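Protocol step 4 of 6: structure prediction from sequence.
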Amino acid sequence: MRGFVVGHYDHKYPEAIEEISDLLRSAKLVLPEHVVEGIDGFPEALFMLFNGAHLGNLVGSAVSLL
């Protein structure tokens, strides 16, 4: 396994932000998100948080906007 210290490359942050922003805008980079709807889904979401049953960001939505 190889790694690197992010702080060693802080001078490249502006370049990275611009490149990643372009990838997100063009949909070439998609961040997965798992949404659990409703306050009743909170126990399920909490369980998923600790057992790794979600992909990407885990979001609990207590209010539906639709």
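Step 5 (inspection) to follow. The first helix runs from residue 13 to 25.
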